[in-house]
Every structure is written in C-alpha cells, then in structure tokens.
C-alpha cells in the first residue's frame, strides 16, 4: 500500500503530457486563419487594411513616415471554430478520463484491503498494480462513459462563458433579465458538475469493488449514500476540513522555511519570487498526495456502509472491517465473541 502514495505521479505525468498536446494543437488552430493587416499610425490608431507582403517588399512594412502595416488578428472561420470546440471537448474528456482512472485504481487497491478477511494474508502483494491491471482490462469503458458526462457539462459551461463574453463585448448590452438568466444557468451547471463529480467518484468505487457497469454502479452508490445521508455529510465535511488543514500546514511550513532560507541569500535581489513559486508548488504537490488519503477515506467509508448492510457479524455473514474499526463501532463477529 505504500506505493499508493506515489501513484498520483502517474496521472500527473499523463495530465502534463495531455496539457502539452492541448497547447500545441491549440496554437496551430488559433493561427490557422487568414491574417489581417491594417495601417497603424504613430498614435496607434488603426486605419484601412493594407497588403503586408507588398508593404514589406517595398519598404519593410512602413507605408509612410508615420504609418506602418501591422498584424491585427486572424479572420474568423466557422470550420476552424468547430475544430477548436472539438479540441476543447477532447481535452475535457481525456482529462476527466485520466482523473477517473486514478480514482478507480486507488479505489480498487483500498477495497482489496478492506474486503480481505485476514488483513495480513489475504491482501494482494501488489494491490495497486493488480488494481491498475483490472481497471485497464475491464473498466475503461465505464470510466470513459463517466468522463464523457462530466466533459459534456464542462463544455456547456464553457459555451455559457463564451456566450456571456460575446454578449458583453458586442455592440449592445445585456438586459438585466438576460444577465440574471445567464448567472442562473452558470450556477446550475456549476452545481451539476460538482454533483456529478461526487457521484462519479463513488460510482468508480462501486465499479472497483463489484465490477459492474457505470450506470448500475452510479445507481447503487447514490442510493447507498442516500440511505446514510447523515453519515455522508458529517464525514465529507470533517474529512475536507482535516485534509485542508493538513495541506495548509505543509504549505505554510514550506513557505516559512523557504522565506528564511532565501532571505539570507545575499546574491538574490528578489527573494520573494522563488518563495512564491515554492509555495504554489508545495500546495499543488501536497494536493496530489492528499488526494490519495481522500480517496482512501471515501473507499473505506463506502465499503463500510456496504459491510453494515450486507453482513451482521454471524459466521455466515461476518464483518470485514478492521478490528480497530469494529472496536470504535462496538461491533464483533460471532466467532470473535466465542473466542473471547
């Protein structure tokens, strides 16, 4: 299980590669249109369009003493715009798929520990590697479908932002009713995305445990959580607070240490710049590693709820939770009671 702490490096590298690919393709798409050139005077006033090729060949782009032929923008092209939308959608989909892959792999590893009756002997030797293999072989379709749902919602949100930008930047101003409707739509789809991410995360846990398809797993996870809504709310808020305090403590400690270290370096003129970069980096790195703990808590919690509903501690249906958890809840298997 120690390797699970370092597993986020793999999704992080995949996301980094995806980001590089996204930026490279986007650069080609943005510059794929026909360039527009216009005459610009010394005051920066844009005048009539000009022929840049002719201006360069005649006098290095200078039309007269105070006017120069300069690049303004690229012509809008509906075909290129559709390609940009398609590219953005691909970015959303693949990014969410990488996140889903990491969550499902970790969920499978932690679930294999929880559902091992003998925690010392029944846990696989390499639980993360075994879960990674199972996920790639059996669950990629479910992960792709769950990621697709999130990507569609994110694309709609991006479309709303684009529409809002166009309306605000157009010749006419939005009315108060239009602004209100736009804000309501943004809020609704933001909430929908948050809810779907929460549901998908628990669905991936169910997929890792039972191996069922996405729809069945999402339904089972949703109703299981609804039957234990009070426990879900309390655990979710407490967990988020504790993990946030942990991330904040690490970031603060690294920031203070780097501040005093770089402050004593006499050859640095702006020592706050590296401190700022280190603080941001430490927060990002700590977030990646704390996500493992967050996934472990969610997986164990969902397995715990399943354990309570499926088992009663008898010899036929013993509890699979660890001894420490049974001690906290006051639960015992019948065999353990007889041994006592």
From TrEMBL:
GO cellular component: a single term: plasma membrane
MF (Gene Ontology): transmembrane transporter activity
Organism: Exaiptasia diaphana (Tropical sea anemone)
Family: Belongs to the CTL (choline transporter-like) family.
Name this polypeptide is given: Choline transporter-like protein
Record function comment: Choline transporter.
UniProt entry tagged with the keyword Membrane: yes
Domain of life: Eukaryota
Membrane topology (UniProt): Multi-pass membrane protein
One Pfam family of this chain: Choline_transpo
InterPro entries, per the entry: Choline_transptr-like
Keyword DNA-binding assigned: no
Cell compartments where the protein resides: Cell membrane; Membrane
Main location: membrane
């Amino acid at each position: 299980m120690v390797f699970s702490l370092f597993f986020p490096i793999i999704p992080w590298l995949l996301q980094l590669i995806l980001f590089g690919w996204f930026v490279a393709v986007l650069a080609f798409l943005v510059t794929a249109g026909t360039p527009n050139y216009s005459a610009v005077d010394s005051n920066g006033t844009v005048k009539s369009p000009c022929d840049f090729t002719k201006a360069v060949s005649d006098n290095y782009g200078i039309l007269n003493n105070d006017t120069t032929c300069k690049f303004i923008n690229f012509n809008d092209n509906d075909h290129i715009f559709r390609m940009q939308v398609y590219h953005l959608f691909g970015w959303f989909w693949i990014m969410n798929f990488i996140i889903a892959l990491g969550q499902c792999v970790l969920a499978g590893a932690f679930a294999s520990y929880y559902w091992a009756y003998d925690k010392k002997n029944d846990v696989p030797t390499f639980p993360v590697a075994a879960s990674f293999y199972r996920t790639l072989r059996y669950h990629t379709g479910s992960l792709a479908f769950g990621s697709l749902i999130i990507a569609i919602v994110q694309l709609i949100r991006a479309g709303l932002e684009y529409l809002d930008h166009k309306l605000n930047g157009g010749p006419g101003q939005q009315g108060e009713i239009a602004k209100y409707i736009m804000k309501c739509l943004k809020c609704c789809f933001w909430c929908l995305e948050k809810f779907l991410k929460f549901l998908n995360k628990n669905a991936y846990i169910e997929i890792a445990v039972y191996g069922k398809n996405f729809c069945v797993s999402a339904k089972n996870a949703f109703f299981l959580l609804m039957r234990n809504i009070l426990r879900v709310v309390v655990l979710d808020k407490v967990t988020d607070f504790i993990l946030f305090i942990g991330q904040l403590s690490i970031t603060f400690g690294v920031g203070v240490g780097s501040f005093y270290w770089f402050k004593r370096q006499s050859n640095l003129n702006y020592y706050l710049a590296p401190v700022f970069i280190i603080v941001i980096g430490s927060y990002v790195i700590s977030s990646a590693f704390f996500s493992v703990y967050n996934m472990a808590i969610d997986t164990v919690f969902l397995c715990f709820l399943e354990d309570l509903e499926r088992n009663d501690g008898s010899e036929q249906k013993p509890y699979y939770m660890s001894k420490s958890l049974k001690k906290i809840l006051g639960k015992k298997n019948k065999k353990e009671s007889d041994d006592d």
